């Protein structure tokens, strides 16, 4: 499912190198993003009739906390968030003319009971001299769509996503499509992405 998005880190390597020089260590996780509450990362790739969307977000943005859900209220919050994330066409508005349908999706997070999340790491093992005694939980969602008319897929609107998850204040977006690649910053006031 992630064949298109696997190439994204290499395509964006120059941006990552520049970003690394501009910022100090701030809980870097995996690829290009850092764990910053209120900020998520979205990678969108369109190749042929396949659209892939990859969301990486601190759990705080999605459920309002990062600790393990032990109370009934927390468990209900996590279940409700997961149910929303399992319906990406209600979160990411795609032009109806493109005829896109979800073909595959994968959600992962320690909060969902995943044994190991790719962004979890033991902060106590950092060799940077900082005392990290807290855990960061991320929520990752990967979606693959097949679009009958990919030429009609000119935009992706994130308005519904911001409404469903209002703690998300900004999304750093990387788009790869027929017109090349670009990085944009999305906010609730600027929620429409254009390829």
From TrEMBL:
Pfam families: ZrgA (PF10986). Residues 115-137 have a biased composition (Basic and acidic residues). Keywords: Signal. Residues 111-137 are annotated as: Disordered. The keyword Signal applies. Residues 1-20 form the signal peptide. InterPro entries: ZrgA-like. This is DUF2796 domain-containing protein. It comes from Phytopseudomonas seleniipraecipitans.
């Amino acid at each position: 499912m992630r064949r298109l998005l696997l190439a994204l880190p290499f395509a964006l390597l120059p941006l990552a190198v520049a970003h690394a020089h501009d910022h100090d260590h701030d809980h870097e996780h995996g690829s290009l993003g850092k764990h910053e509450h209120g900020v998520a990362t979205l990678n969108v790739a369109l190749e042929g009739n396949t659209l892939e969307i990859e969301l990486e977000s601190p759990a705080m943005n999605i459920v309002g906390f990062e600790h393990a859900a032990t109370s009934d209220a927390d468990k209900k919050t996590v279940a409700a968030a997961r149910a929303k994330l399992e319906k990406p066409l209600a979160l990411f508005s795609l032009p109806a003319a493109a005829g896109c349908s979800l073909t595959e999706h994968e959600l992962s997070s320690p909060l969902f009971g995943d044994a190991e999340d790719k962004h979890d790491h033991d902060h106590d093992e950092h060799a940077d001299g900082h005392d990290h005694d807290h855990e960061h939980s991320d929520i990752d969602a990967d979606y693959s769509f097949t679009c009958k008319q990919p030429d009609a897929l000119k935009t992706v609107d994130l308005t519904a996503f911001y409404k469903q998850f209002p703690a998300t204040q900004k999304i750093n977006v990387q788009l790869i499509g027929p017109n090349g690649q670009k990085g944009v910053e999305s906010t609730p006031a600027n929620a429409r992405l254009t390829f």
